[in-house]
Write a structure and sequence with these properties.
The protein is of the alpha+beta class. The protein has 15 helices and 21 strands. The longest helix has 19 residues, at about 175-195. The structure holds adenosine-5'-diphosphate.
Amino acid sequence: MKNPKKILIANRGVIAIRALRAAKELGYQVASVYSTIDKDQKHLKLSDEAICIGPAASKDSYLNEAAIIAAAELVGADAIYPGYGFLAENSSFAEKCNQSGFKFVGPDPKVIEIMGDKIKAKELIESLGVPIVPGYTGNIQSQDQIENIVDEIGYPVIVKASAGGGGKGMRVVEKKKDLWDCVISAQNEAQLAFGNGEVFIEKYLQKPRHIEVQVFGDGKGKVVHLYSRDCSLQRRYQKIVEEAPAINLPQDKLNEIQNICVKACSELKYEGAGTLEFLYENNEFYFIEMNTRIQVEHTVTEMITGVDLVQAQLSLALEDRFDLEQDKLKINGHAMQCRINAEDPETFIPSPGKISNVHRPGGYHVRFESQIYSGYEVPSNYDSLIAEVIVKDGDRENTINKMRMALTELVVEGIKTNQPLHLKILDDNGFKNVDYYIKYLEEELIK
Ligand code: ADP
């Protein structure tokens, strides 16, 4: 009998244990990597092998490409699973994995590269028929030139870094007198943060919702969508609550957008899981970016479609198996995810440290994705996401009620978390009525 294939998980935290479970359920062997400070993570104990790849600082461990490839070599991995964050959207790392004989679980590095450059991505996506936010992606030559262009677009506008990510390198400009200074400072900030000072300009939408479409392709032109998500509840451009499907939208328009996404990704021969992100305002959808990886919020899509997206990624990458058929993908119920972060619920200051006690919520259609256990120490070196509470019910109202119960049951002691903020959100009328926008949390709820 053939030996089971082996996956190397090149990540940590919530996505690492998520991927470990998916891989083990499929019968694969799992090797994991970790930094010295992460040696007590639960998924390492469940892995067949665990390799230390460096000290706590991400640049020396989870971003250390050579160490990860060496670990893959050492364990004889067939594939490298990048998860999200760290090297997940690094096209040169993806290329190195493939060239070293370890299949990078994700799309073609060339597609990752284009989508990582927001100017190229917007231009390409627009050419494939997807509506984008009006703006300017051409060369910025002089103050006069750019002021004339923005006069045409109309204020306010947002200056964004082409290589940007995580909400960094963006500037909202309300008035002409501030435009040139903002362009220059955004260019400088982008150069420092991303090593690429290219910026572009978009119309700044005032109160849009963030709606995204999950796609999955076989890499040969067959692509399906797995419907939509609403991720409008954000703080500092970071998502806090996510839902699937997105509701209170014109259904015909949403269907059209989903189909356009499928068509565009099929022309790209897109491989694996991807998300096209849109802003939605005044009945229109505007593409902002494509993420060429699994997202934190993939779980809510899994809950309503019954598709295990991580398993689908792994079976496509390792067995060339693609079982998804558009006409068999149906929405069942309404799902919601609350991201539990180790942070003060009012000041948002990170709250790392030892968790003295954990009680996980349970019940029908209640899911808890996390590594944490009593005695686990949350390090201060990484993202503050420590858990996801995910629930599903028949409709949104019942889903909110189920989430309230799940969050009430959840106990995390020893550190602070944003659990009280989530309970506040669930009881807010604007939230209940889907009457919100991307700045709603910051402007109306946590003023
Ligand atoms: P990043 O890659 O840094 O996450 P995005 O382009 O995805 O950058 O934008 C992040 C968030 O910034 C969006 O979810 C939205 O909240 C806000 N944003 C981006 N572009 C615009 C725009 N044109 N108008 C208003 N808000 C925007």
